[in-house]
Amino acid sequence: MTVTFRPATFARFVLAAAIALAAACNSAPAPKVARSGGNKSVDPATAGSIAGRITFSGPAPAAEPINMASDQACVQGSGPNTVSDAVVIGADGALKNVFVHVKEGLDSAYGFDVPTSGVVLDQKGCKYTPRVVGVRAGQPLEIVNSDPTLHNVHALPMANAEFNQGQPVQGFRTTRTFTTPEVMVRFKCDVHSWMTAQVGVVAHPYFAVTKDDGSYEIRNLPPGTYTIEAWHEKFGTQIAKVTVADKQAQTVPFTFTAKPDGE
Fold it and tell me: Which class is 44-256 in CATH?
């Protein structure tokens, strides 16, 4: 007996076979997501939150000018009269770039999936953007050179491994991972001395960086009593204790002042 396929029938047969093969290839188990901490999961039915606004009290420090004349690509990227973003104070004393995190009190039985997507630290206009960022221990940190000039990414951790990576051309990307919690890790550029970033490495997802209006929020926090730390690059750290009951939204504000000369 001879079986004859019409062209249209044969085409449908090939397409069906290709789809079946693709499905078989895609049916392999997904790679296991890394997890930090214990095996206990947070119950969303009882989880609460902590939020607040961080401000600066007193006369705002004068903005520090940055001399980028050594690299015209930097001047073109940032403009001729750029200033440091180490201290950014907005309306009503709103303090930007404060790193806030749960320092103590989280039950070690809780565990959290480590994100596989990377946090981006960009170099644009010969400045690190954002200047302050948080990342989970084990989560990729992707450092990007968006400038048409040479940068040199130099991380200076105390608990993690130091690294120093040149990024010679625009579009260059480097991915690194910190394995140990550390607040904070300073980044610099050995080519442009004014370039600085601060990276908070945390074992859990309970951290935030204040926005332009000084606000922050930490969500999905299990009930408990916690020590909250607020860190600023120039003004130091402050801590507060707070108890979060079932489904409770707590407010924890902080107010920073300038350090006395010499500190």
Answer: mainly beta
